[in-house]
Amino acid sequence: MLARSHPKKVVETDDLALVARIATGDLEALGELFDLHARSVRALARRLGVSASDVDDLVQLVFLDVLKVANRHDGRPVRPWILGMTAVAVRRHRRSLTRWVANIAGRVFEARRPLPGTADDALEREQELVRFQNALDKLSPKKREVFVMVVVEELRGEDVAAALGIPVATVWTRLHHARKELRVALEEEVP
Amino acid sequence: MTRCDRAWQAEALEDGRLGAEHEASFERHLASCAECRAERRAIVELRRKAREMPVPQTPALVQLRQRERLLARANRKMIAPVRPSRLAALLVAIAALCVVIAVRHRGRAKVASTAIAAPTYRVVDVASADWHVVDSSPSTRVALHAGTARFEVDHLRAGQRFVVVLPDGEIEVRGTGFVVRVAGSTEEVSVDSGIVALRIGGSETLLSAGMRWSRPLPPVTSTSSPASAMPTPVLATVASSVIATAPLLATAKAAPSTKEPVASGSDFGAAMKSFASADYAAADTAFADFATRHPGDARVEDALFLRAVCASRLGNNEGARARAREYLARYPQGFRVADARRLAE
To answer: What proportion of chain A, given as a percentage, has pLDDT over 70?
Structure first.
């Protein structure tokens, strides 16, 4: 029997306490929250298409946003809350015209090719990842953020809905179409 | 892709959307349905590929530097004074631009408004009218020397004035149509529409539609008194169509001297000469003499105003204020009202 995907069990108590401290202006707590979640924020931003050159700035902006809105945190789980803010920050980032142009140029000049001299199985795996990345890049931003947040980041549909400000049913609909489009794209790319 | 009705449950199972009972049921179904097993396998494979996507790891040192950078930025944000956002700054800039444009536009409008056109009017020669245009500026002056003329003036706009200069006074138009008869001096003014201000003998009388002013008969007993020569306005309300019906006064025709305009002109000229040469004390005396000797002359208005200016230039501010007030009281609609008000303050 194939294993099922389970949302990560995260101990929220510490996170909630940190957010409460941040709300009082405790920058040490912000540093601790950064230690706990910066890698997730960075990974999500990269999977949502933020370039390597921009991702550091974006991570900084997300945590500065946390500092700004911590006093309005409503007690919901912190990790989906931060990842939701990351998705919103990525949307903002995408809307920036100069970054959009730079991103396009980066994709043109940044050819995803397997490294020469690798072993056959590694080469095949590398090609598979390139195909998957290409298929993911073809998704619309809305489907992509739902797919990445649910499937890769293992967030619950309800948390994603709350983080993105959309109904849960919309999350499942977008996820269904994202999967469908990815499978079609991967089948088309099979050599 | 698949034909089994329960294939959708493969995705629901993956997402944890099936209840415990349905999960168990679907898992039993999977054992017997190849299509659902394939669907389930495809979804799991998609998840595997997605999670295998590499994300470059950040070295610990880089992570530490970024943490420090974040805290430094956060610290600056917290201690820095609240600054307007870019959007707010942009809105303020746009508002400032709008104000500048509005002010400049208003300024242009003000400049444009100063280019006032001269009033439009028609002069109808009723009976041997001898008239000519003295000034065709927005403050138009038309002199009527003799005869009877009808003046039709279109509605005056702001800044426009229309004055009929008479041998012994003047009529300023506030409205539209009136008839003036002059025989040596002003004999009769009939207003059939609007309002005019008649200034004769140093006093101002408003005549509205239907009113007529005619020179009164001089008292029989007074033959030498200067006061008898002073015209006293007599007002009579008449139908607008009835004009020039008042009996003409033969004695009034002979009253003013034919040399009077020449004498008053030389007196006023002498006063102006002193004024132009900055001899304000002499000019003040000359203007006073002129106003006394020629009380019916239209230039008395100028003389009164210039006496206030003379006092001002001689440093007699109190005297200047008093004369300016006197001018304003006598000519509330005069040509020099604006300047006189400044002197009177």
So the answer is: 78
